[in-house]
Amino acid sequence: MPDRQSVGIVAPQTAVFDAPIQLASGATLPRFELVYETYGTLNADASNAILICHALSGHHHVAGRHRADDKAPGWWDNMIGPGKPIDTDRFFVIGVNNLGGCHGSTGPASIDPETGTPYGSRFPVLLVADWVQTQAMLADRLGIRQFAAIIGGSLGGMQALRWAITHPERVRHALVIASAPKLTAQNIAFNDVARQAIITDPDFHGGDFYGFNTVPRRGLRLARMLGHITYLSDDGMGEKFGRLLRSGEYKFGYDVEFEIESYLRYQGDKFSDYFDANTYLLMTKALDYFDPARHYGGDLAEAMRQAQARFLVVSFTTDWRFAPDRSREIVKALLDAKKDVSYAEIESAHGHDAFLMEDAPYHALMRGYLARIADEVNPLPQEARA
Q1: Cβ neighbours of residue 112 under 8 Å, at least 6 residues apart?
Q2: CA atoms of 105 and 114, how far apart (whole Å)
Q3: pLDDT tens, position by position, for the chain (386 residues)?
Q4: Sign of the dihedral defined by the CA atoms of residues 137, 142, 147, 152, in that order
Q5: Which residues are catalytic?
Q6: CA–CA separation, 368 and 216 (whole Å)
Q7: Which of 40, 61, 146, 268 qualifies as a FRET site for 296, CA 20 to 30 Å off?
Q8: In sequence order, which residues have a C-beta less than 8 Å from that of residue 22 and are 6 or more positions away?
Q9: What does the H/E/C string look like for the chain?
Q10: Which burial class, exposed, middle or buried, applies to 12 when counting CB atoms under 10 A from its CB (0-12, 13-18, 19+)?
C-alpha cells in the first residue's frame, strides 16, 4: 500500500551556473553545478518555499525515494511529506547538495575545466557564506525572492543563521536546530583529528588520489568513527550497546569483540564507500571557520541585529557536540538584538543526532511552528479548516 505521507518517487535536478563565482577565500570557480530536489508545489507568488540546509555529510536527497526498491528514503523523510511537520501539501521544499559536495554538485572530484582532470587538492576552501551565496543563486533561478523558512540542523543551522544575516530580506523564518554560533576549541580539535586521519592516509596523495585510482578509505573510516562517537550520547550508546560482546566471551585480541566496536566499524566502512575525502575536509573546515560575530567585533548580537527573520531555536538535552548552552547563546544574542525568537530544549537520549530522529515532542513543536508559517504565507481555505 502506498505511503500517503511520502513525497513518493523523486528525481534530482541540476542547476548549471556558467559564470565565474568568487568565493569568500578570494578563489574563483569558472563555473559550477548544484544538484537539488524539490517536493510540493510553489504557489503563485512563490511565498511558500522552504530551503533545507544539510549538515556535514548530508546532501540534496531529503525526502522520498529515487526508486521504488530503495532501501531507505531521504535523510529527513520523517519530517517532510504530505501531512508531516514540513507539510508538502502546503510548502514547496528544496533540498540542495552544497558546493564542494560529493553527490553531484561541483566538488573536488569534479573535472576542472582548465586541466581536464579532477580538482582534487586545487578545489578551494569554502565558507558557509559561499554555500549561502550559491543557494541564493539557485533561489533566483527558481524565482524565489523570499523563503517562508530556512531550516537546518547542526551545520545546516549555521547556514540558516548566515542566511538571516546576509540576506535579511529573503528569510521570513529561520529554524536553527542542534547548532551553535561557532565551534568550541574541543569541536575544532575533533575535526582536526578527523582531518589528520584522512590527510595521513598513504592513499590520500595530497588530495589528488583520483589520479592514483585509489581512495583514502582508512582515513575516511577513522574520521567517520570518531565523528559518530560525538553524534551519540553516552546514555544512548550505553542503552543500545552496553558492554555486549559478540561472542559472549573475551577473545584477548584486537579484533572486533564488543558490539559498539562492530557498529562503529560498520558505520566507518559504509561511509568510506560513498563519501569523498576532500569533501569531508572542506565541510569540517567550513564548520571551523563559521563565526558570524567575527566581523562585528565578536558581538553576536550585533551580527544578529542585521536579521529580519523570526527564529525558532531548538536543542536537545544530551547533545554534547552542540550542547543546549550553545543554542542559548544564539537565543541570548537574538534577544539582545530585540529579535523575535522561540526556544525549545527537547528531552532526548539521542545526542546530537536527535535532530534527525522521530520524536513526538520535537515533531509536535516543528509541526505547530510550521503550521503558523503556512497560515502566514499560504492560508487554508475556510472549508479546509472546518
Answers
A1: 118, 119, 122
A2: 18
A3: 567 899 999 999 999 999 999 999 999 999 999 999 999 999 999 999 999 999 999 999 999 999 999 999 999 999 999 999 999 999 999 999 999 999 999 999 999 999 999 999 999 999 999 999 999 999 999 999 999 999 999 999 999 999 999 999 999 999 999 999 999 999 999 999 999 999 999 999 999 999 999 999 999 999 999 999 999 999 999 999 999 999 999 999 999 999 999 999 999 999 999 999 999 999 999 999 999 999 999 999 999 999 999 999 999 999 999 999 999 999 999 999 999 999 999 999 999 999 999 999 999 999 999 999 999 998 877 766 65
A4: negative
A5: 154, 319, 352
A6: 45
A7: 146
A8: 28
A9: CCCCCCCCECCCEEEEECCCEECCCCCEECCEEEEEEEECCCCCCCCCEEEEECCCCCCCCCCCECCCCCCCCCCCCCCEECCCCEECCCCEEEEECCCCCCCCCCCCCCEECCCCEECHHHCCCCCHHHHHHHHHHHHHHHCCCCECEEEEECHHHHHHHHHHHHCHHHECEEEEECCCCCCCHHHHHHHHHHHHHHHCCCCCHHHCHHHHCCCCHHHHHHHHHHHHHHHCCHHHHHHHCCCCECCCCCCCCCCCCEHHHHHHHHHHHHHHHHCCHHHHHHHHHHHHHCCCCHHHCCCHHHHHCCCCCEEEEEEECCCCCCCHHHHHHHHHHHHHCCCCEEEEEECCCCHHHHHHCCCHHHHHHHHHHHHHHHHHHCCCCHHHHC
A10: middle
Residue keyed to cell 565565474:
20
Report the length, in residues, of the chain: 386
Residue keyed to cell 536553527:
176
Question: What are phi and psi for residue 145, nearest 5 degrees?
Answer: -90, -35
pTM recorded for the entire structure: 0.96
Q: Look-up: residue for cell 559561499?
A: 130
List the 13-17 sheet strands across, edge first: 13-17, 32-39, 92-96, 49-53, 149-153, 173-177, 310-316, 341-346
